TrEMBL record:
<dbReference type="GO" id="GO:0022627">
    <property type="term" value="C:cytosolic small ribosomal subunit"/>
</dbReference>
<dbReference type="InterPro" id="IPR012340">
    <property type="entry name" value="NA-bd_OB-fold"/>
</dbReference>
<dbReference type="GO" id="GO:0003729">
    <property type="term" value="F:mRNA binding"/>
</dbReference>
<keyword id="KW-0694">RNA-binding</keyword>
<feature type="domain" description="S1 motif">
    <location>
        <begin position="450"/>
        <end position="518"/>
    </location>
</feature>
<keyword id="KW-0689">Ribosomal protein</keyword>
<dbReference type="GO" id="GO:0006412">
    <property type="term" value="P:translation"/>
</dbReference>
<dbReference type="InterPro" id="IPR050437">
    <property type="entry name" value="Ribos_protein_bS1-like"/>
</dbReference>
<dbReference type="InterPro" id="IPR000110">
    <property type="entry name" value="Ribosomal_bS1"/>
</dbReference>
<comment type="similarity">
    <text>Belongs to the bacterial ribosomal protein bS1 family.</text>
</comment>
<feature type="domain" description="S1 motif">
    <location>
        <begin position="191"/>
        <end position="259"/>
    </location>
</feature>
<dbReference type="InterPro" id="IPR035104">
    <property type="entry name" value="Ribosomal_protein_S1-like"/>
</dbReference>
<feature type="domain" description="S1 motif">
    <location>
        <begin position="104"/>
        <end position="170"/>
    </location>
</feature>
<protein>
    <recommendedName>
        <fullName>30S ribosomal protein S1</fullName>
    </recommendedName>
</protein>
<feature type="domain" description="S1 motif">
    <location>
        <begin position="276"/>
        <end position="346"/>
    </location>
</feature>
<dbReference type="InterPro" id="IPR003029">
    <property type="entry name" value="S1_domain"/>
</dbReference>
<dbReference type="Pfam" id="PF00575">
    <property type="entry name" value="S1"/>
</dbReference>
């Protein structure tokens, strides 16, 4: 009996399926969206039909089909086996995927759902996670066309215990693309002309598809002229003819050019733009140091800020010219090696200082506005947008310039006279005091050294007297007040007295007259002696002077 019981138990263990294992069963019927499956030993179970359907497809199962199912429980409350076809597929899939992962082989699957950060992929029973960054080599805005499509994936990571699988579609595409790039690049050579399709446009250039491999067409290689925006000459999807400039075999980067297929305008620059010739160009760009002017497509020259205006110094170029403005320029220098042309804007106009010198010779009266006041004078705005300077010494005839400069304000309109024009140093000297004439010159117009003039005493001092002649002040020292020392007393004169004096010196530079009463008396004595006798004849000086005075009365 014991032997029989042991044999019976062994037979039951062999023939009865174990819970948690995959067993084979036969479809007995399909009803109410479920398949009734016989798993042996009069055990039957039910499986939803959706477990037999591939993502996006109808279930593929018929009565009589033999299928694999996972036995979860031998019997439930209704006396039926609890089975799952999906779990059977998952177990088989995990075995297959682990083997593929170990061999770094590709696996086939289909994207069937979207989750946070990516998508879910059915790998023949096992569900894997596809991160959004691993869908394609470039960001995918619409994944609709990829849903339900069977395609290869690369397993990046898997953990059976936790049930986690991470896959990548991008790795497959990059590998295929690398093989394709290598093949295309192998057929290309530097200097070769090929056709390509513009795939993408950026601010620095455009990417051109050469048939499976992209090349960069930099903005500086699109045309000989300046291209501010590649979209000016290219559009996405456009077919263009380009030249292969450089191929980097290691990085598989290809540099392309369009302007290399056109004639270089610099080959004829020297012939077309000789030095000192003038041309009309268009302002293409303005910087802090000048403005770029396009003479023709592909040929630009720089007008340095110092060559822009005769009169506007330390001014931003944008305040002199504007972008797209047509301007006349002169060619100053050409450097074909560096492909540079130096241009001048002010050279096309006459030097305003030369024009002013021609139209305003020395002594010409002018009128202008006070532009600036400095410690050494005034700057006056003149015609031609230039300034002239009035030095302190040219502000007034009387007193010091430092004392009267405070009477002027910016914006005052003043009259002056041109005293000097230096075209090389671009300087114009003006004189305000000369604009109203020279009172000194007018006062001493007929006065010469030795002349006898009448002056008025204006002030008495210990050292002499101050006198005035036609508005001009002079000072007669004590020693020049009389011939006789006893009469050289300032107090014998009174303010307002009229006195005849002799001019001993005319100092035009310092604007002073040298006057002397003593010199006049000596001169009168000499004249009297010559006319009425000599002191050697026995006549006294008193007799001679008396006779001279009598002669004057007669």
């Amino acid at each position: 009996m014991e032997e029989f019981e042991a044999l019976l138990n062994e037979s039951l263990e062999i023939d009865t399926p174990q819970e948690g294992s995959v067993v084979k069963g036969k479809v007995l019927a399909i009803e109410a969206g479920q398949a009734i499956i016989d798993v042996g030993y009069k055990m039957e179970g039910r499986v939803d039909l959706k477990e037999f359907a591939q993502p996006g497809e109808a279930p593929e199962i018929e009565v009589g089909d033999e299928v694999e199912v996972f036995l979860r429980n031998v019997e439930n409350a209704r006396g039926e086996a609890v089975i799952s076809h999906e779990m059977a597929r998952r177990e088989a899939a995990w075995d297959r995927l682990e083997e593929a992962y170990g061999k770094e082989e590709r696996v086939e699957g289909a994207i069937f759902g979207r989750v946070k950060g990516g998508f879910t992929v059915d790998l023949g029973g096992a569900v894997a996670f596809l991160p959004g960054s691993q869908v394609d080599v470039r960001p995918v805005r619409d994944a609709g066309p990829l849903m339900g499509l069977k395609q290869p994936f690369q397993i990046l990571k898997m953990d059976r215990r936790r049930g986690n699988i991470v896959v990548s579609r991008r790795a497959i595409l990059e590998e295929s693309r690398a093989e394709q790039r290598a093949e295309v690049i192998g057929n290309l050579a530097e200097g070769q002309t090929v056709d390509g399709v513009v795939k993408n446009i950026t601010e620095y250039g455009a990417f051109v598809d050469l048939g499976g491999v992209d090349g960069l067409l930099h903005v500086t290689d699109m045309a000989w002229r300046r291209v501010n925006d590649p979209r000016e000459i290219l559009s996405i999807g456009e077919t263009v003819k380009v030249q292969v400039i450089k191929i980097n075999k290691e990085t598989h980067r290809i540099s392309l050019g369009m302007k290399q297929l056109q004639d270089d305008p610099w080959d004829t620059v020297i012939a077309k733009y000789p030095l000192d010739s003038t041309h009309t160009g268009r302002v293409t760009n303005i910087t802090d140091y000048g403005a770029f002017v396009e003479l023709e497509a592909g040929v630009e020259g720089l007008v340095h800020v110092s060559e822009m205006s005769w009169t506007k110094k330390n001014v931003h170029p944008g305040k002199i010219v504007s972008t797209s403005q047509e301007v006349e320029v002169m060619v100053l220098e050409i450097d074909t090696a560096k492909r540079r042309v130096s241009l001048g804007l002010k050279q096309t106009m006459r030097n305003p200082w030369e024009v002013f010198a021609e139209t305003h010779p020395e002594g010409t009266p002018v009128e202008g506005e006070v532009k600036n006041i400095t410690e050494f004078g005034l700057f006056i705005g003149l015609e031609g947008d230039i300034d002239g300077m009035v030095h302190l010494s040219d502000l007034t005839w009387e007193g010091r310039g430092e004392d009267v400069i405070g009477d002027y304000r910016k914006g005052d309109i003043v009259k002056a006279v041109v005293s000097e024009v230096d075209t090389e140093k671009e300087r114009i000297s003006l004189s305000i005091k000369a604009a109203g004439g020279d009172p000194y010159a007018e006062a001493i117009g007929g006065v010469k050294r030795g002349s006898i003039i009448t002056v008025e005493v204006t002030k008495i001092e210990d050292g002499g007297i101050e006198v005035e002649y036609e508005g001009m002040k002079s000072f007669i020292r004590r020693s020049d007040l009389a011939r006789d020392r006893a009469d050289q007393r300032p107090e014998r004169f009174g303010v307002g007295d009229k006195v005849d004096v002799r001019v001993t010196n005319v100092d035009s530079k310092n604007r002073r007259l040298g006057l002397s009463i003593k010199a006049r008396e000596i001169a009168e004595e000499k004249d009297a002696v010559e006319q009425f006798g000599s002191s050697d004849s026995g006549a006294s000086l008193g007799d001679i002077l008396g006779a001279a005075l009598k002669g004057d009365r007669d």
